[in-house]
Amino acid sequence: MSDKAKYDELQSFIDEMKNEKGPLMPVMQKAQDIFGYLPFDVQKFIALGLDVPLTEVYGVATFYSQFNLEKQGEHSLSLCLGTACYVKGAQTLLDRLEQELKVKTGDTTKDGKFTLIGTRCLGCCGLAPVMMIDDDVYGQVKADEIPEILKKY
Amino acid sequence: MITKKDLDKIKAATLTENYLDDSREGIRVTVGMATCGIAAGAKPLFRLLKEGTADLEKVEVKMVGCIGSCRLEPMIEVYEGSKRTTYVFMTPEKCQKVLDEHIKGGKVVTEYTIGAADKENASSITEMSYFKSQKRIVLRNCGTIDPENIDEYIARGGYEALDKVLTSMSKEDVVNTLLSSGLRGRGGAGFPTGLKWKFTMAEADQKYVVCNADEGDPGAFMNRSVLEGDPHALLEAMAIAGYTIGATIGYIYIRAEYPLAVERLKIAIKQAEDKGLLGKNIMGSGVDFTIELRLGAGAFVCGEETALIASIEGERGEPRPKPPFPSQSGVFGKPTVINNVGTFANIPQIIVKGVDWFKSTGTEKSSGTKVFALGGKISNPGLVEVPMGTTLRDIIYNMGGGIPNGKKFKAAQTGGPSGGCIPVDHIDTPIDYDSLAEIGTMMGSGGLIIMDEDNCMVDIARYFLDFTVDESCGKCVPCRIGTKRMLEILERITTSKGKADDISKLKELGKNIKLTALCGLGQTAPNPVLSTIRYFEQEYETHIKEHKCPAGSCQAMIAYFIEAEKCIGCGLCARKCPVDAISGEKKQPHKIDRSKCIKCGACMEACPVDAIYKR
């Protein structure tokens, strides 16, 4: 989709939401859906469209962990750091992932393929430790299986 | 306009057509398709069964929510007559066999049943010993009905409570029913629900009903199961709340980490609107009530009610001082009733079955049941719903199957980052709001994480503090700075740099934060630390004075060794080592170069003869 088409789509959603109460978060969520992240220009566009100060948009964007201000990798790789996963060794898996991907948690690999995220509880505690790549959930992951799993992407 | 008569018609037709009750004349096949079931591979099984039965008469294949035993996923169930068979650890091959031999051939494939997997003489989950002592009120439909089909909910008595309320109960009747039922908030704090509703009754031009589905406690997934398995129960209860307090709009605030639950809620809302069970003039009563979804964006503090309200309004989810309470000034400054998913899910049944029925379960001060998400070091992780007052021992050893790998139980953690731990000395405490508070923890939303001797309690405290520091919104000083200082001390202790007065500093800081923080998140943040100090102070001292981690968990204080007598020199560990720290000749004992070792434990996992140990 071209940039223009993306902005058009966002604009029509803004028009739809403008008169609703508390439209800012839904609009930002839609914008992230469309653009993949919330670059400064998109935040400005939202501020103008909803007639709210840019500081408020930025404030909300930085408050919630799911809003990204930077471009994300092709695949998002989330390792669950919920309690059940943690007591079953999620930290070891995270260390291993950082090593395999040569990135720190929160960063994107040099080739732009993966963004490594230490996520909040995914609610699949029965399958702990759990890792999610995009929408695929991997349960009872062992450190040694990681290279094999990564190869699939 | 839909009436009670229509509901009855739908009920009768669906029971017959979908083979939902024991008088069924066909076969009902269900596939557990909540998030965990799908993660374990349920989708291809569902397709296989759908396609494989397409030309069969009298066979219905349905997807259902969480059946409750996550470790056995994917699961399918076959119902014929009054017989129910639960198949576990299904694969497409096994599923094909069940299709051919059982569904088509009428013969149970015994080797794949739950009884075979768990070595009990049983063919369905309801016959298993760990299931029998549970009592399902909140989860009664989860794993039984198709959550994307409103007719199946109606067939199980759904929306009868709404009809009863609209046609025969005054607003005061509803409040009084809730008050005398003794229902308390299932989000964790245990505030009487009837009272909350009563406080919101005063006249106002606009009011709101909010469902808190921002299940943020790590290790808790009770709400997700209800949302994914029985979404209409929630919608019905919210509509009842709308009628009672006089609100026309309801919001469900749900965390974005639950995409499937969001999807199913959207479907459910649409179906209820189409049937006239939500929207304008519900069931011809003149009452209007619509429900909108609001998605969270990954902020734990938004589970706190005032922060959640701020987030619904589209702002940063920062808590606001109370009073005013939401019942006076909530969403957009209007009176608001805000309840947890689990609380709402109880309400339709209390209305239909009555106060006495509800009070017959549980304890005097905590009536009803509580759903726990059992996880961590436990043989049968999953969801359990038990009467209030059940002991922890019963949950762990009877329903949870005990601790795996012959390890010893050390502690259970309840209430997530706001709660505390229960050590082995208190394992016989009946679980209800008040007894848990007495022993220094809380009911919480229902996460119950079991820890064994390999888990370090100082590290667990550090884990929770790390979580709180990360999730603190930064509005008030005690939480923003105080928890950070506590975390620094804990990091010091777990990396062998603890100081003699660290424990007393933690206690003092913890006490002050509890007294002074603005919201529930800050006020409860020190709990995991204070409670682990209360029961495991010795472990803290060993870290500080002897620079040792008794559980062998804190990496800075352990090292890996190879026992030369046991090592067979297979070289597996050397090949698995990600940093080439292990060397040795073939068939000779190997050695670990500790200057290179990153203590990942891969070698220990790989060793076929258990020659590697940590100390």
Question: Could you explain how this protein is built, in words?
Answer:
The complex is a heterodimer of chains A (153) and B (615). With 153 residues, chain A is of the alpha+beta class. Chain A is built from 7 helices and 4 strands. Chain B has 5 domains: 16-132, Glutaredoxin; 150-357, Rossmann fold; 369-452, Ubiquitin-like (UB roll); 457-546, de novo design (two linked rop proteins), CATH 1.20.1440; 559-614, Alpha-Beta Plaits (2-Layer Sandwich), CATH 3.30.70.20. Chain B is built from 25 helices and 17 strands. In chain B, the strands form 5 sheets. A 5-stranded mixed sheet of chain B has the order 10-9-13-11-12. The radius of gyration of chain B is 26 Å and the shape is globular. The chains are: A alpha+beta (153), B alpha/beta (615).
Q: Which tags fit this structure?
A:
heterodimer, A: alpha+beta, Glutaredoxin, 2 domains, elongated, B: alpha/beta, Ubiquitin-like (UB roll), four-stranded mixed beta sheet, 17 strands, globular
